[in-house]
User: Which sequence fits this backbone?
């Protein structure tokens, strides 16, 4: 049986379509035998070389699809603020505990 090329040609569609096909192929490789076959094909040079322009286009498309909060420090900043508010909400009221205990006649 003749190996099928895994890298689609430029005439097959846009980078977005190429990514969809590649991701669906990758997610469909569930068995260890399929993964082993893929690794053997890569080692034997059966996979096609990806040009620099294609690699750059795929990288740009993946970066564009990445969630906005992982591209910016907003996620970390929001986590730190929420954590600080949680700690503050536990520590700030504790200074009134002594006043409440001393209210008895």
Assistant:
């Amino acid at each position: 049986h003749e190996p099928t090329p895994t890298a689609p040609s430029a005439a097959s569609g846009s980078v977005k379509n190429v990514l969809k096909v590649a991701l669906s192929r990758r997610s469909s490789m569930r068995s260890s035998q399929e993964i082993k076959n893929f690794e053997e094909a890569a080692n034997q040079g059966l996979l096609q070389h990806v040009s620099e322009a294609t690699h750059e286009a795929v990288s740009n498309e993946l970066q564009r699809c990445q969630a906005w909060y992982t591209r910016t420090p907003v996620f970390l900043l929001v986590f730190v603020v929420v954590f600080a508010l949680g700690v503050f909400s536990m520590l700030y009221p504790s200074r009134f505990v002594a006043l409440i205990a001393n209210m008895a006649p």
User: Anything to note?
Assistant: Helices lie at 15-28, 32-43, 52-65, 68-71, 74-91, 97-101. The two ends are 94 Å apart (CA to CA). The chain has a mean pLDDT of 74. Residues 74-91 form the longest helix (18 residues).
